[in-house]
Structure formats: C-alpha cells, structure tokens
Amino acid sequence: MAKGNEFSGRLEWRINVPNGTSKTLVPESGIIQKSCRRLQDVVVGITLGIWSFLHKAWEIGVNEPKKFFHCLKVGMALSLVSLFYYMRPLYDGYGTNAMWAVMTVVVVFEYTVGATLCKCVNRAIATFLAGSLGIGVHWVANQCGEKFEPIVLDFSVFLLAAAATFFRFIPSVKARFDYGLLIFILTFSLVSVSGYRVDKLFEMAHQRLSTIAIGVSICIITSMLLCPVWAGQELYSLINRNLEKLADSLDGCVAEYFTDDDTKEDSSKNLQGYKCVLNSKATEESMANFARWEPAHGRFNFRHPWKQYLKIGSSMRSCAYYIETLNGCISSEIQAPESLKKHFNDVCMRLSSHSSNVLKELGNTMKSMTKSSKTESSVREMNFTVQELQSALKSLPYQLALFTSPALEASNNGKDEAPTEPSKVPLLEILPVTTVASLLIEIAARIEGIVEEVDELANQAEFKPASKKGSKEPAK
Amino acid sequence: MAKGNEFSGRLEWRINVPNGTSKTLVPESGIIQKSCRRLQDVVVGITLGIWSFLHKAWEIGVNEPKKFFHCLKVGMALSLVSLFYYMRPLYDGYGTNAMWAVMTVVVVFEYTVGATLCKCVNRAIATFLAGSLGIGVHWVANQCGEKFEPIVLDFSVFLLAAAATFFRFIPSVKARFDYGLLIFILTFSLVSVSGYRVDKLFEMAHQRLSTIAIGVSICIITSMLLCPVWAGQELYSLINRNLEKLADSLDGCVAEYFTDDDTKEDSSKNLQGYKCVLNSKATEESMANFARWEPAHGRFNFRHPWKQYLKIGSSMRSCAYYIETLNGCISSEIQAPESLKKHFNDVCMRLSSHSSNVLKELGNTMKSMTKSSKTESSVREMNFTVQELQSALKSLPYQLALFTSPALEASNNGKDEAPTEPSKVPLLEILPVTTVASLLIEIAARIEGIVEEVDELANQAEFKPASKKGSKEPAK
Fold first, then answer.
1. Where does the record say this protein resides (chains A, B) (predicted)?
2. Which of A149, A193, A219, B181 has its CA 20 to 30 A from that of A48?
3. pTM here?
4. Per-residue model confidence as pLDDT tens digits over A98-115
5. Any chain A CB within 8 A of the CB of B83?
6. Cβ(A157)–Cβ(A191) under 8 Å?
C-alpha cells in the first residue's frame, strides 16, 4: 500500500497498464519496459490487423468463389500476354510497343464480361479515332511550317482534351463512353506529342493497334471462356435476391409486431434484408449498363430488356421505403394494447403473408422465366385481404367502446346495444396499429406496382406462358 | 372519297405520313419519295439529337461553371506537359519515357483536388513499390539461370497480379487504394517483362519516376491553384443543400395535404427535393473518401471529421424515407373529410413548420460553423408541438362523434354533453389524417437524430459557440 501512495501521482500509468504488476511502475526500469510494452502493443495491433484483414479476404474467397476465380483469370491473362513478350519473334516485330498489350490487359480486364467488353470496344474505337485524328492534325501542323507546328499541336491538344473532358460530364455519355473518352484524350495527346519527334507515325499506329488487339483478344477470350461472370446474370440474380429479401423482411416485420416474444428469434434475422434493396440502385444501374454490351448468354438473348430490370428495381425500392417506415413504427415506443393487436392480428398477418406470397410468386416468374398463372390469383387474394383489413378498420370505432371499458364489456357482453356514453378512448393508443395497417395497405399497392413492372418484363422478354406443370390450374 | 376507297388497303401508309398529300401514296413515285422522307427523318432525327445534346452540354456549362473550368484546366495541364515534351533538352534526357508524363496527367487529373491527390499518391507509391519489387524479382530470376528466368518472372507476374486483384475486392482497400493496386499490377508486369530485354533497369526506373513526378506536380499545381474544387467543400455543400431540400419537402408535403388547391402551386415545386437525399449516398461516400486526402482549405483543417458527414447524411436519409411515405399517403386515393382535416390543420402545419425550422437552424449551424443557441429552443418547440399533436389525437374519439353527425353537431353545439349513442364512424375515413399525424411525429423523432449527429459534428470539428450577433438570445 506504501508503494501505492508513492505512485499515486502517476495513477494514469497504472490505468494504462492494467495487467502489469506494480514493478512496472518503478521509474528506472519503467521507461524501457514501457517502450517494450508499447512495441508489443504495436506488434500485437499489426498482427491482429493483418489477421482480421486476411480473415476478411478468406471470407470473400469462400463466400464468393467467382471473385477468387476472377483473380486467377487476371493473373493468367497477364502471364499469357507476358509469354507473348518473352517470345523473341513477337518482340522483334513490335519492339517496346509490346508493353501496350500488357497495359491493355491490366486496364481493360474487369470482373464482368460486359464491363470488359465495354472497355475493350471503347479502347479500340477511341484509339483508332484519336490516332487518325492525331495523324490528321499532325499533317495540318506540318503544313504550317516549323515555327507554328508546336503551337498548332499544343492548341489542338488543349482544345480536344477540354472538349472530351466536358463530354465526360454528360451523364448519358459518361455511363457508356467514359473510358473511351479518357483513352481518346490519352491517345490523341500521345500521337500529337510523339509525332513531333518520331516520323514513323503510321508504323507506330499500326503497331499500337495490333498490340492492343492482342491484349483485347486475350482479355475477351479469358473473361468469356473461363468461368465467365455475366453482368446480365448478376443483375438478374440481384433482382431475384432482392425480391426474396423484400418478402422475408415484410413477413418478418409484421410477425415481429404481432407475435409473442418467444417466436421473434426466427424472424428477426431476415428483418434487415430490405436495406439491401434500398442501397442497390448504383449496382443495378452499372450492371444494366454493362449487360447491354454482352452477347446472348444462358437464357438471355442479345437484346434482352435490361432497362426494365431498373424499373423493377426502382418499384422495389419504393416498396422498401414503406417497409423501412413500417420497421420504424414497429420499434416505436408507443405500443398498442394487446387486445387491439389481437383484433388486427389475424387479418394483418394474412395480408402480409399474401403480399409476400405475391413477391415470392414474382420471384418464381423471374426464376423460371415463365409467366406464372398463380400471380394473378395471389394478387387477387392480396387485394381481397386489403378489403378485409379495410372493413376491419371500418368496424373499429364500435369495437373501441368495447375494448376500452372492460367492466362495461363484461356487463354488455353479447348485447348489440352500445354503452350509453361515447367512449373517450385515447386514439393515440390505437394509432400504432392503424398506422401499421394503413402502411400494409400502401405496401400492397406498391407490390402491385412491382407486379406491373414484372409483367412488362415478361412481355418485353417474351417469357413463355405458364406450362401445366408450373401452375396448379390447368393451362388454357 | 373515291381515292380514299382506292387506297383503303394501304391505310397504314396514310397514318405514317399524316402531313403528306394523297399524291405521295401513288406507288411509282412513292418508293423514291418514301426513301427521301426516311432520309429526311433520319437527318432531322440526327440534327435534333445533336441539338439536344449540345443544349444539355450548354446547360451543364451554364449551371455548373466549375465543371467548365475543370475542362479548361485539363486542357491546360495537358498542353503544359506537351510543351515540356517539345523542348528538346527534356526529350533528350528522358527519351520516349516522357510520354509517361502525358499519361500521368491524363489518367490522374480528376474533378476534385482530393481525388487528384488520392490518385497521385497512389500512383507514386505504387510505382515505387512495384518498381522495387520488380527489380528484386528480376534479380532473383537472374540467379536461377537463363532457362528458368522467364518461368520465374511469369509465375511472379501471375501470383502478384492475382493477389493484388483480390485485394481490390475488399471494400476498405478498394475505397482508398484501388487505383494504387491497378498501377502496382501494371508497373510490376511492365518492369518484369521489360527487364528481360532491357538491361538498364535502374536508369529506366529513375526516368519513369521523374517523368511521373513531372506529371504529378503539374496536376497538383493546376488542380490546387486554379479554381480548385475541394471534395470536402463539395460534401459540405451537398449536406447543406440536402438539409434545405428536406425542410422544403416536409413543408411542401404537409402544405399540399392541408391547404386548398389554390395555394398548391408554390409548394409543389419543392416537393421532390427529398429524392435527392435518398439518392446521394454514393456521392457522399466518395466525396468523404476523397476529402480525407485534402490539405487544410477554407474553413476546414486537415483532420476535419469528414466521416461525421456520412452519419449526418445517413440520418437525413432515414428521415427522407418517412417523407417519401408521407408523400405516398398524401397522394393516396382515400382522403379524409375536410372537417377532420381542419381539426388537425393547425397543429400539423405548426409541427411541420417547427420541424423544418429545426432543419433550417441546423443548416445555419452548418453554414456559419457556429453552435447555434437557437437549435435547442427550436427542438423544444418541435417537441412541444409533438405533444400538442398527441393530445389532439387523444381527444379525437370524442370529436369524432361530433364530426360524423352534422345534425347532432348542430343541435349539440355549445353543449358539453356528448350524444347518447356511440358513433359508428368508419375509422377508415380518419385513418389518412392520423397516419399523416403519426408520420409527422416519427419525422420529428428522426429530425432529433439529425440534430444529435450535427451536434456531434460541432463537437468534433470544434465549431465556435454562438456569438451575440448570431442568436436572438443574449449570449451567456
């Protein structure tokens, strides 16, 4: 305890090293030990950081083997193109220009086939256009005499770079030709600059184009033939997954609200799925954009209406906003009395299950790519339950009188006559339930919006009509 | 009419050319005229397309002059770096490596200073690391004998490219070092490939690094000194703008619901502002990411808590979801009776105006970067109005009896006694209003969440306390 008093002025030291013995507080050896401990902490911190990083990396590898294969593909494409380079005949032919093949592979190889194709086409066309324009401008500059040549070239670089950069700001251009415009600026600058020195412009252009062609073909072959990741397929799976998540969240939310605490465990895990729907806009847009570049693959032909998927996604989001609000109402502090909840329990649960059934049916339509005859009947069921819920709401004021005066309820039980005084029920108590109910009705309306968009997709993509096997009803 | 009969079989022709005279339907000259017309249509279509495109471009230039200046800056940086190239001494020193300076400028120059700095640092470090590693691997490969050299080199390219590509999938790495990893793969492949041929590796590395340094410094100087666009400033303005839009939308929505048709015109233009808040997540994240690279500028120091802006943005989005729902309820088909609306009109309008006042006050806090003493009182007012609305809701069942039987209302007017029979009011009719009211209460709760996040920002960024001038109350 004497030691404790001695070092009372350095209490913060002790707090910093809560596991240390009191020996560590002796000033002489303290400094060394402290720095040792710091070093140890740093080493432990770094080790833990690397460990958690590797763990995260391992998880990505295990959960998304496609990404792992993509890495191997990039490595393979690069070592392939390097092999080209190691072979002397090719090197002799193309000289240092061969590095453009390596560069093309590194820059152009993307995760999805669509993105790779988009970049390849952009790169090839932009290089060709900018090369031709560069040579043209170079010829014009040559005509202007030696004095004006650099000025003309420099001014043309300024003008074209500024114009191309400006076009990159226009959203519709940016979505499709952003990379092309970048390569256009790059190639034009390089050609007009190097043209001033190197006189073999045409030869250089030819070499550049053929090395880029080598790089591009290696990229396209590797990305299309070895475990291809199609942007279209990814978009399709994303929309399907989101439909499922939306259905699960809706079910989960309503179940959480109306059922007892014991059964909550199961539903809560699916509760947050709708958040993925809220945040998937950017992914959907880029996927749809890349999917347009892809050739026919799997069940999708070349002109598959990818834009319609964006509309489905957008209508799903507008439904997800309501589920977010519903979720907020459910976790609100003001909770309705149990008796009132019971009144709505049955019809709300039925409405949510019918609504999520419609979503699941849409998921089936999407998955099987056949028009499901069951969708119509599930929508009908959903709408019927909406009407039921509405009549349950209509009948509520009368019920209120019963609910809120248990004594009266007991005495009046079975009588049709109402109590003689109007009930001064705090509406605030019934409000949470009625809000949940009206949100459910709105959600049903939004789900009809999704149904319309999926129907439109089915028409545009010419989904097969439902077969006998697929539907319970006999096919017409 | 006879002519009409004659061509009745080609009615669709007439529909296609509604402005044409009947002469155009004569088959002989029809084909030529038809193709003329097609050509004309195509030309008109192209002209219109180009016109609308230029119009869009012009609009961007006029509305966002910063973007226009950025284009000029890119052009200037490129012509500057080309000028370097035209000067023979530099060319003699660096040879064809000088093109790396051009390439660096094209690829690295971004719209915001933060993005440019991020790319510059990434490029410089990645080039240095990959270069050193490449030379190291090249030395190891050299020791393995001429036969194994290409194999070792090729395998190392495969391994490192695959590993670096994998790291690009990890979100935290991707956000900050995506470009660096790309350049790492590129440089390592180029060094190990060209090292096999060119023996002057060190000289090349030196040249590469110095040309990149030229490009990088031109980029940094141009982007930071000429009308700099700071990512931090952009993020700050975006959050401020969104706060305003949220306030306007809230006001607009509630006003649209409760006021007459005559005054709707003014409010509806601001109604859709909250949609920008819903969709700004990706922009906010990338801006916050780039802002971290920026040095102190304007009112922001180097370690400004940019991450806190993301939290503010996220709490604003959770509020915007409710406004979206509110907007849906307002445009819903079922509308409450006017008498009921009037009951809530006053208190709802006050709540919405107090709520939007809080938002505007937060906007002022952000704009002036001083803790506003008014915020607290506006929050208090808002919460007080929430309580008023809650008591308005509590008193509703009693009111219902009055509203729904106008005859009774007339006879009972002024009396405290309630009607003798409980009212069988369709709750469905009052539901829209109560839902709007409960959404408004939830929105107020979400706004308190925004207040907390802004307070946290004020603490982290050490906003000045409110001055005498800034607040109506005397400073303590």
1. Membrane
2. B181
3. 0.79
4. 778 888 888 889 899 999
5. yes
6. no
